[in-house]
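User: My advisor asked me to double-check a structure prediction for GtrA family protein before group meeting. I don't want to rely on an old file, so could you generate it fresh from this sequence?
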Amino acid sequence: MKRLHHYVTVRHRHNWKLLLQFGLVGGSGVLVNMAVLILCNKVGPDAHSVAWDLPLTSFNVRWYHVYLTIAFMVANLWNFQINRWWTFKSSQHSGWWREYLPFLAVGTVALAANLGIATLLLHPGSPLALSTSVFDDSTGFRTRLYWAQLIATAVVTPLSFLLNKVWTFSSVRGLNKESSVAVQEPVSTEQ
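Assistant: Sure, here is a fresh prediction for GtrA family protein from the sequence you gave:
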């Protein structure tokens, strides 16, 4: 048991710190995401109406899919910049685009999972659909879309952290360490 305690608290202390920082940045990203989502929901068409019909299926791209994607793009950029500067301190290690494209790729995987979960929570035919008697969209706190987004975010966040830590930020640092090691030629002592 003592060995496990050491393994978790001492050996992985840095990872716990990174997870906490990533969580704080993610929390601010959730606020940004929700603010953009609420704004889109207020000014755009009805979130549950069809944006694009998917032929030969019972599913459609609804406006809430569009709103969730817009909110994701804004929050993804926000989270990337703060994680790059504060959590993983990688701004000195690599170019902005070189890190953003993998971060966006990870985010896109997270977005796909988020949209899937949100669809399960909002589609009336889903067994996991949020109850319309409780979440009747009468107030902000009873809006199904907002709760679906919060639930989906809570489920997807650990996956996002793991993929970003293992791939996005550390792989770029690893590439830069390799490229920064100068190949030294032997110094000739002959004159």
